Amino acid sequence: MDGPDRAQERLQARAPETELIREAQAGSRAAFDALVRQYEQQVLRLALHLTGSEHDAEDIYQEAFLKAFRYIGNFRFECSFYTWIYRIVTNLCLDQLRRKKTRREDQAVVVDQSGDEIDVLSSVSDNRSFSNPGKELDRKVLGERIQAALSKLTPRERMVFELKHYQGLRLRTIGEMLNTTEETAKNTLFRATKKLRTQLAGLR
Amino acid sequence: MNCELAHERIVLAAYGELPDEQVHELDRHLAACTDCSQEREQLLALKTLATAYPVTELDPNFVARSRMRLEEALDAIPPKRWYERMGQRILNNFASLQAAPVAAVLLLIVGGGAGTLGGYEYAAARSAHTAAGIAALAQAKADAQPIESAPEIANISSIEREPNSEIVHVTYNTVTPQHIQGSLDDPSIRQLLMLASENASSAGVRDDSVGLLAAECRAGHGCQGEGIRDALMQALRYDKSVAVREKALEGLQPYVAEDMRVRDAVLEALLNDSDARIRTTAISILEPVEADTSVRQVLSTVANSDHNPHIRTVSRQVLSRAPEIQ
User: Fold this and answer.
1) Alpha carbon separation from B3 to A91, B16, B32, B34, B259 (Å, rounded)
2) Least packed by Cβ within 10 Å: which of A152, B23, B77, B228?
3) A139 to chain B: which residues are within 8 Å by CB?
4) Do B49 and A121 touch (CB under 8 A)?
5) How many C-beta neighbours within 10 Å does residue A55 have?
6) Does B46 contact A200 at a Cβ distance shorter than 8 Å?
7) Are B74 and A32 inside 8 Å of each other by CB?
8) pLDDT tens track for B177-228
9) Which of A74-78, A114-118, A132-136, B189-193 has the weakest average pLDDT?
């Protein structure tokens, strides 16, 4: 038999998202916190991979959920909450990518808590090559080349490629998130893959 | 198929976005075209290369730090006052009215109808009272006269006997039954079926109407409009009869991939429906969108917490089958 705690947990896990949204709209901070917990991992992972910087990812995460908190009253269930929150996040990421494009030269740095900069790719490990430093180095160099090639894409192409290739979303959903059509998302993905192949031609 | 189109389709196929019938067409083209075949090899190589910059697991400290910072910022925002929330609600309601003029028109019609009915009831009650004296004088005559419209009596709303008299006042409502026949594609028939699916008091009538609407959707007969889908979603969410909900679910199956609202309704059924059969059917219906993040989230919740062991097992199987969203 399940204990009362287990039953309570199950009840919480089943609490429909719609109810949480309505409660958050009515001013419940606890309901909004529950929504944050539901989506924070995805938001942080997307922002971190796109920007390559923990600092930027944290800023985007914070700004996105603050915006969501302020404007949750405007959410009218015309799309899923997931699409709505991703729309906010992708817009912030696009702004960040645009700003970065003007000032960055393919640096992938992370500013850790103490303020020191570290190379993000050096922290990317791969178990398969863990025991082989040569292979690890090759992989690191390859990772840097991929990141450099990704940074040559326009912010929109980068975003569509990220959402499709790395986050595995459907093109229709991507179109909805970026306020455009599935057809446009498809064309953007096509352009992005073409550019990346040109950029990475020497590696194959 | 020309090579330019093939190049586009190669990208879509590589990302699982090409419909099956076009995949076969593309395969035939690739078998005969070396250039396009190379193009596909290059794209697959790019996909492999791109894994060298993977999406990494998040450091729990990083997540905790971000959350703490957010909580501090949220704490600093003063809570909305009641009149601000009220204003927001009014604005939202106004916006939904703008977005749904049909709802506004319906409200107007319902209001007008209620007013007319109220007026009619009042006038009927008054005339019943004034007619009482005449009725007493003509009692014998009235005894001999059957109520001509007896078959049209819908219900008796009140019966009142005059004190120390044989005179009885009966207030009854009449209704004229109507019959209509036509094709399932006829908009007025569809309208009646949709009304029946929501309002019929008999589960049998709801079952018939939802069954017919669902069959139309499954057969692809003009369910592109939102009315029928809405009626099926409504039935799936709120109908008390399991058979009706099951039929509604089956009718929604063709639209789960293309209509996010349908997907969400099926997810709600998977999470909340009390009947295990409905939840099992919902899992199988979600197959075309099982890689979607929200679907995976619901499946993992169900895999952990559904009280039916079979449903938990099936959810786990689907989760292990679908590619990871990474």
Assistant:
1) 35, 19, 11, 10, 32
2) B77
3) 52
4) no
5) 15
6) yes
7) yes
8) 677 787 777 777 777 888 787 766 677 888 888 888 888 888 877 676 667 8
9) A114-118
Phi-psi region of B239 (alpha: psi -120 to 50; beta: other; left: phi over 0): beta
Q: Do A79 and B260 touch (CB under 8 A)?
A: yes
| Contact at CB, A76 and B54, closer than 8 angstroms | no
B176: left (phi over 0), alpha (psi -120 to 50) or beta: beta
Residue B230 in contact with partner chain A when CB distance is under 8 A: no
Enter the tokens of residue B159: 């019966």
Which residues have CB under 8 Å from B258's CB, separation 6+? A172
Nearest to B54 among A42, A124, A200 (CB): A124
Residues of chain B contacting A166 with CB distance shorter than 8 Å: 50, 55, 326
Tokens of A43: 């938001």
Q: How confident is the model at residue A131 (pLDDT cuts 50, 70, 90)?
A: very low
Contact A93, B111 (CB under 8 A): no
Distance, in Å, from the CA atom of B151 to the CA atom of B173, rounded to the nearest integer, reads: 11
Residue length of chain A: 204
Q: Which residues contact B46 (CB under 8 A, 6 or more apart)?
A: A193, A196, A197, A200
Whole-model pTM: value is 0.50
Hey, of B47, B70, B298, which one would you mutate to test binding to chain A, going by the most A CBs within 10 A of its CB?
Answer: B70
Contacts for A83 with CB less than 8 Å, ≥ 6 apart: A173, A176, A177, B260
Q: How far apart are CA B14 and CA A196, in angstroms?
A: 15
For residue B174, list its beta bridge partners. B153
With contacts defined as CB-CB under 8 Å, which chain B residues touch A165? Answer: 15, 47, 50
Give residue B26's identity as a one-letter amino acid code: L
The H-assigned helical ranges of A72-181 are 81-103, 133-151, 155-161, 171-177
Alpha helices in chain B (DSSP H): 3-14, 20-32, 34-50, 60-76, 82-99, 101-137, 139-144, 187-199, 203-218, 226-238, 242-252, 260-272, 276-285, 293-305, 309-321
Pairwise CB contact (< 8 Å): A197 & B46: yes
Bridge partners (DSSP) listed for residue A117: A111
Distance of alpha carbon B42 from the chain centroid: 44
Q: What DSSP line would sit under A179-191, residue for residue? A: TS-HHHHHHHHHH
- Torsion over CA: A130, A134, A137, A138 (sign): negative
Residue keyed to tokens 């009304």: B195
**B13, B28 Cβ separation under 8 angstroms:** no
Q: Is B294 on the interface with A (CB under 8 A)?
A: yes
Q: What is the rounded CA–CA span in Å between residue B153 and residue B173? A: 6
Looking at this predicted complex, what is its ipTM? Answer: 0.74
